[in-house]
Amino acid sequence: MFSKPHCPVIAIEEHYWDEELAKTYVGGEAGRPGEQQKRLYDFGPLRIKEMDDVGIDIQVISLGAPSTQKLPAETAAALTRRVNDRLHAQVGKNPQRFAAFAGLPTAVPEAAADELERCVKELGFKGAMLHGLANGTFLDDKKFWPIYARAEQLDVPIYLHPALPQAEVSRIYYDDYVKDFPTVARPAWGYTVETATTAIRLVLSGVFERHPKLKIILGHLGETLPFLVWRIDQALKRPGQKSLSFRDIFCGNYYITTSGNFSNPALLCCVMEMGVDHILFAVDWPFVMNPPALEWMQTVPLSDEDKAKILSGNAKRLLKM
């Protein structure tokens, strides 16, 4: 029988959509089924009811993919500022239940760093969320490093969220099966490959050597990387390669969430590799609904103290809530 948790619950990958931003994208990731779309635009009774039904106290709200990652440079900064201001207004209507991650105009990285600072210092946002490639460029590119420098300076995390793979990648990897299994290019596999690749590239890029206190969040229990961390680390230490400890960086600078991956074996792997202090609760609402996430947490074979860390304690510490 389902019972609500006996500790606060903070869910940190919970999405919404902005009407002005949605109009700039025709179809693609912005096109959602009716019920899902209704939830993405809701900040009132429906969202709150579905939180209350399962005992979620706070949602940290962020844009759904592709967020502001595909905006042209000439409009990105101004439009993203308006998007963030509207999200701030919605959070301000119910600050006891909502917090926010900023969208950033990555087409103009210096402006993105400034927007991150504005959102944190003036609007009270908890960090930022980036979605997939930025107009076709991986986010480890050095032109984006001003964003990471500012995040380190502000001591806020950057959440790396999936988005659709490049069209050519989708064609080669997934088109044989996407008609019968449309999610194979999305949450079933394509999203994971894209986001895990970005996370690995960030480590290889040297950004953590330059910014050792930078904090990165990955959803979906780390996009398979906790399972693979030993092998990646060992392979990168074979002769003939630049000196690097993938394990130290990944397990030290990365945090992961439970969004859309409610598996006890997978969670225990993450705890064993990264430690429970680096795991935070999330649902991935409304792409995943709230009840399975909370029902699952009742079955997790961890102590009540560790469950409380995952459900809210770690988020309070990392996001200063």
Overall description:
- The chain is α/β, with parallel strands linked by helices and 321 residues long.
- The protein has a single domain, classed as TIM Barrel (Alpha-Beta Barrel).
- The protein contains 14 helices and eight strands.
- Helix 5 runs parallel beside helix 6.
- The radius of gyration is 19 Å and the shape is globular.
- The mean pLDDT is 95.
Unreliable segments (pLDDT under 50, ≥5 consecutive)?
A: none
Largest sheet report:
5 strands, parallel
Strand order in space, largest sheet? 4-5-6-7-8
Number of helices: 14
CATH-level-4 superfamily name = Metal-dependent hydrolases
Mean pLDDT: 95
* CATH third-tier fold name: TIM Barrel
Shape, principal axes of CA atoms:
globular
Beta strand %: 5-15%
Helix-strand sequence: EHHHEHEHEHEHHHEHHEHEHH
Which helices and strands appear, and what pairs or packs with what?
Elements: E1 10-16, H1 19-23, H2 34-40, H3 45-52, E2 58-63, H4 73-93, E3 98-100, H5 109-121, E4 128-131, H6 145-154, E5 158-161, H7 167-174, H8 190-205, H9 207-210, E6 216-218, H10 225-236, H11 246-253, E7 254-257, H12 264-274, E8 279-280, H13 290-299, H14 304-318
Parallel strand pairs: 1-2, 2-3, 4-5, 5-6, 6-7, 7-8
Helix pairs in contact: 4-5, 5-6, 10-11
